[in-house]
Design a protein that fits this description.
Blueprint lengths: L3 E4 L2 E4 H4 L5 E9 L4 E9 L9 E7 L5 E6 L10 E9 L6 E8 L9 E4 L3
Antiparallel strand pairs: 1-2, 3-4, 4-7, 5-6, 5-8, 8-9
């Protein structure tokens, strides 16, 4: 049986509206002496199949410039929250913290972001 949400005056299948945005719950970063970093990021999203799933997370500097991208190649309907890693990210030496955000295939961005220190 398919569940529905009321959106305005239209009944729209729940997987398209109610799943919400992708949230970054946690992140770990390990950088070497040359500022090459590995990020492990935990994302939560109510993936409902190929039509609506968390499909990407990004690492940005505090000015909004993207410095790393992890594409998520498939839905994680039965693994929530989930953690994926991205290595070989060159973080400029003058950056002490980054912003991590996730995207889903319907809402794009807008869920919970996380600020992470990469160096003290």
């Amino acid at each position: 049986m398919r569940r529905y949400c009321l959106s305005g005056l239209l009944l729209i299948p729940v997987q398209f509206v109610c799943a919400g945005e992708a949230d970054v719950l946690a992140a770990k970063v390990h950088c070497d002496d040359e500022s090459i970093c590995r990020f492990s990021v935990t994302v939560r999203h109510a993936d409902s199949g190929w039509e609506h799933y968390a499909n990407r997370w990004e690492i940005l500097d505090t000015s909004g410039n993207v410095i790393g991208v992890r594409e998520l190649a498939h839905p994680h309907e039965h693994e929530q929250p989930f953690t994926r890693s991205l290595g070989n990210v060159a973080v400029p030496a003058d950056i002490s913290e980054v912003v991590i955000r996730a995207r889903d295939s319907v809402h794009q961005y807008g869920g919970r972001e996380l600020v992470v220190k990469v160096r003290e």
